[in-house]
Amino acid sequence: MTRIDHVALEIPRFDEHLALLTEHLGLRIVREGRRYSTGQRIVMVTDDHGFKLELIEATPDGDTGHATEVFQHLAVRADDVAATHADLLATGATEQRPPHRLDAARADTSLVRLGDLAVQVVHYDPDSPDLT
Fold this sequence. Notes:
This protein has two helices and eight strands, in the order E-H-E-E-E-E-H-E-E-E. It is of the alpha+beta class. It is globular and about 45 Å long. The relative contact order is 0.22.
């Protein structure tokens, strides 16, 4: 792994919060897409220093009808997603999603769980919009 890439948050009132972050904090959108597993909207935003935040549209809770903000995962960059994924599994991580392609991000990725922490492993193509 080479470095931490981004943090992902699932947020309620998606459009409202996205507007606040872009209009008031000066973050800019680098990519929009849909979540691989559920189809929820996703937006990757960045600041002028390369910090990235992945915003995922929250779905309302079935019991309350309200959505709450939830930490989703910590993403780390790797030169080889499949090899890093296998190494993490060999050291006790559990697989959530095997290596697969994220076309919108032009990247390869996987997802593992280390205890209570979800960790996304990602490698971007040179022309990925997520490279800042």
